[in-house]
Amino acid sequence: MARPNLDPGALRRHRLGNLLQSLVLITGMALLLAVCGWIVAGWPGVAVAAVLGAVSLAISGRLSPGLMLRMFRARRLTRHDLPEVVDVVAILAGRAGLEPPPQLYYVASPTLNAFSVGQGRQAAVAVTSGLLRAMTLRELIAVLAHEISHIRHNDIWVMGLADVMTRMTRSMSFLGVFLLVLNLPFALAGVAQIPWLLVLLLLLAPTLGSLLQLALSRTREFEADLGAVRLTGDPIGLARALERLERRQGRFWEDIFLGSRRIPDPSLLRSHPRTEERIRRLLDLRVEMPPVAPRDTAVWPRASLPAPPRRPRQRITGLWY
Fold first, then answer.
1. Would you list the DSSP string of 183-234?
2. What is the CA radius of gyration of the chain?
3. For residue 300, is pLDDT > 80?
4. Can you give the pTM of this predicted structure?
5. What's the confidence (pLDDT) of residue 92?
């Protein structure tokens, strides 16, 4: 996996833009939560929201990634199963400064997908049978680098923080509307006044929080793409992998984490950036990539791995695989 020189100007522009967008979006979500808390109970409401959010984040951070892996019925892979892939994960993790490297898991599913869970020594990367069978070695390396980049950038923690703030905002909104209903008779009797502009903000807060969370998810995907290129020096490999994913199953791979809901077309409602935009940014890095490995055209049909079902289905957990 040679690492040729990348365009430093393009790298700086993309990374600075991703960092600023992430900071702005997280700040916006925190401010929205604080405003909702203030509307409901004043400054004590802000303090309660902050404390509950911190406790929720601390509890969620202690949950074992094994829970998510068991939900997908994932099994641990060793060098006996896929020596080339296990070695690639170790090399990429070493370049990313992750020690020990994330554990590799296998999900028997025909969908083309890979995902990362956990942090630090509990981090893991899972790949599906469909992905292993469809990708060339060069493309698979790029996908694994993308997931390891998520772990390196603590994206699982960042998105966990965003999810906690979104849920707290939704709870504060519900509580505020509930209190409004209780005080509505007093308002109609002229005993109390209701600030309707603040009520409107409470009603819109859950939607605004969700939109900010989706925007943050797209930003972190761009940053993971950039991190993968820094690990492999191969934007073309990742671009090819994205093209294959889009061509083979379109946006279905996003449905894995969103249940049976159809991903809407407007970009504001997508959890992942448009594939065309991701590829454009990758090609903007302008690098000539030599062959990644001797088996650049290899695919991964492995008889030793469990055969996937004919088609994915929605499980009792709401996940598709």
1. HHHHHHTTSS---HHHHHHHHHHHHHHHHHHHHHHHHHHHHHHHHHHHHHS-
2. 22
3. no
4. 0.77
5. 92
Q: CA-CA distance, 313 to 321, in Å (whole number)?
A: 6
If one counts every other C-beta atom within 10 angstroms of the C-beta of residue 237, the result is 27
CA distance 50 to 260: 33
Catalytic residue among 139, 147, 223, 254: 147
Sketch the domain layout of the chain as residue ranges: 8-283
Q: What percent of the chain has pLDDT over 90?
A: 11
Query: Do 230 and 15 contact (CB within 8 A), yes or no?
Result: no
Q: 28 pLDDT exceeds 50?
A: yes
Strand order in the sheet with 114-117: 75-76, 103-107, 124-128, 114-117
Q: How far is CA 270 from the centre of its chain?
A: 12
Confidence check: pLDDT of 1 > 80: no
For residue 292, the model assigns a pLDDT of 43
Q: Give the pLDDT confidence of 201-254 residue by residue, as tens digits.
A: 888 888 888 888 888 888 889 889 988 988 888 888 899 999 998 887 655 444
What single-letter amino acid sits at 24?
V
Euclidean distance between CA atoms 287 and 239, whole angstroms: 12
Question: Can you read off the two tokens belonging to residue 184?
Answer: 């509505």
Output DSSP code: residue 76.
E
CA distance 85 to 50: 42
Alpha-helix runs per DSSP H in the chain: 8-41, 43-61, 65-71, 83-96, 129-134, 137-152, 155-188, 196-232, 235-249, 252-255, 275-283
Predicted pLDDT at 148: 94
C-alpha closest to that of 229 among 245, 248, 242: 242
Distance CA 261, CA 274 (A): 18
User: By the 8 A CB rule, do 237 and 138 touch?
Assistant: yes
Any catalytic annotation for residue 147?
A: yes
Q: What is the Cα–Cα distance from 237 to 239, expressed in whole angstroms?
A: 5
* CA–CA distance, 319 with 321 (Å, rounded to integer): 7
CB 81 within 8 A of CB 305: yes
